[in-house]
Amino acid sequence: MFVEDFGPLRDTMRIVLEAHGYRVVEAVDGKEALAKFRTSKNKIDIVVTDVIMPNMNGKELADLIRQETPDMRFIFVSGYTPASLKGKWREDLGLVISKPVSPALLTRKIREVLDEVRS
Predict the structure, then answer these.
(1) d(C-alpha 74, C-alpha 1), whole Å
(2) Which are the contacts of 11, defined by CB distance < 8 A and separation ≥ 6?
(3) pLDDT tens, 51-83?
(4) On the chain, which terminus has fewer CB atoms closer than 10 Å, C or N?
């Protein structure tokens, strides 16, 4: 699942991820993502989400999804650096990647997180 409120970035990353063989469920914000997750949770292996979004932020989304699926993996993408999120962020939520993120970095990190689950 890829959750991003900025349409051009969401579209670009969907195209990149599909080109790497991933099936992508996309959402414009946390609220839409939660609804889509609930109908497709058996098909979702990882959630890549923006941190700051309207309606529901990435942390709130992760907390709600983990209530239903505790072992779901997350990658958070943010315009804020991990250092600036200190004190507002729990390290156990998942990996945080700073924007702008290259498609190569994102696909590599997704692969690493998914491979970690299988190990």
Answers:
(1) 10
(2) none
(3) 889 999 898 999 999 999 999 999 999 887 666
(4) C
Cβ burial of 30 (10 Å; 0-12, 13-18, 19+) is buried
Q: Which tokens in the block code for residue 104? A: 């190569």
The CB-side HSE value for 47 (13 A sphere, CA atoms) comes to 35
Q: Pull the structure tokens for residue 93.
A: 């939520």
Q: pLDDT tens digit string along 16-43?
A: 999 999 999 999 999 999 999 999 999 9
Cβ atoms within 10 Å, residue 33:
28
Domains parsed from the chain with CATH numbers: 2-118 (3.40.50.2300)
